[in-house]
Predict the 3D structure of the following.
Amino acid sequence: MGTQQRKINEKIKRRKDILEVAKGVFISKGLEAATMEEIANKAELSKGTLYLYFKSKEELYVSLVEEGAQLFHEFFKRATNPVLSATKQTLNLIEAFYSFYTEHRLYYTILTSIQSGSIDREKISDAVYDRIHGMAMELLEYIVNIIRKGITDGEFIDVDPRETALSFWALATGVFAVSDFMQRNELGEVKDKKLLDFASDLMLARLQAV
Amino acid sequence: MGTQQRKINEKIKRRKDILEVAKGVFISKGLEAATMEEIANKAELSKGTLYLYFKSKEELYVSLVEEGAQLFHEFFKRATNPVLSATKQTLNLIEAFYSFYTEHRLYYTILTSIQSGSIDREKISDAVYDRIHGMAMELLEYIVNIIRKGITDGEFIDVDPRETALSFWALATGVFAVSDFMQRNELGEVKDKKLLDFASDLMLARLQAV
DNA sequence: CCATTAAATGACTATTATTCATTTAATGGA
DNA sequence: TCCATTAAATGAATAATAGTCATTTAATGG
């Protein structure tokens, strides 16, 4: 019965179309200022239809991160060639993190808004939330693995890989938040990349076995 | 003309009263779920009156941070006894940062929501925004000064004090964001203090001259 | 051709932030 | 003491949207 399948495909496609339109609107307006009305109009659908595909405006918003996580994965994957030393891989990873931040700002923003809890958990269905969750954990795993390798190879000192990975993550997200803030307020030249390099050099150097 | 002055005092007191009530409401409901209606009722005022004192709900919210910054100052001041070594002062500062985070969560949350830009700049008057601004900079200055002292005393290696201070700030806020996230999602035991200590030890050790 | 079902619609409801014309009440001069 | 003036407060009305749901549309397959 090909009809059945076609229907499913159409639903998937419509969902994708909505996400694509929504992405544009969220980029130009942000979560709060974007309206379901506008998204519906641009998608040539009625408002009600959006709710057949997404539980709420917030769910539509965070659903975008699934595409983002895919990309993030690719960035990290490319950065972590197992042939390279743990140090080199770490540096690549930082580079990748930075590239993702600059090239996919909306996705990055969504990711951090989930992290910071500024989006009400109630407004998102469990299915979507769980998927996002899993993705965040997978991303963290990249870092954990590199550090683990560094320790095994005697390149890094014997630290807790998970704690260290979280520290890196925290440092990177913290740096971007701070430099964003400085930028917004024109508080002098805080070049985000320079700051990230500086900060992660501090941490990395400490990790390296003498 | 004592009347004139009394009026001014009364306005100041009313403003304070509103802030106090609002604090309780924001703590229990958060920014979004709190309503001006509820705050007005609890303050035994009409909704309209709130707008004579604050431009918007957001401005009422961020105005609370002014009290918070005061406290933050005190925490930092106590931590940075100039008699102590730069290393010791840094450790105290981290401790103070952590204490502030745990003991004054609402203030901390407001501070980071300003930092992260999740509050629309448009909804806040310039006067309030500028004040908050200045406070953030003063807090940063504490860290800058300690690092500067560390370098002067030969305790720390020769780094850019401002960049380093920002890195610490970024690390601390990043760590709290991450551990909050882990906590919320029950992703295993990520003790925030332990993580902060671990991460800042990594950075601090790197700073220390051999 | 029709009954059934899935999908889409958009008028309607509900919730709040914000405004503003009106009321209240204090002040100080006549 | 009374009144004009002014500041402060009020709350009904407005505006903007998220989200709902009874109704319509249109495809399907017997």
Remarks:
- Chain A has a mean pLDDT of 92.
- Residues 7, 11, 14, 45-49, 52 of chain A lie near DNA strand C (CB under 10 Å from a C1').
- Residues 71 and 100 of chain A are 8 Å apart (CA to CA).
- The interface with chain B takes residues 32-33, 112-118, 120-121, 133, 137, 159-160, 163-164, 166-167, 169-175, 177-182, 184-185, 187, 190, 194-195, 198-199, 202-203, 205-207 of chain A (CB under 8 Å).
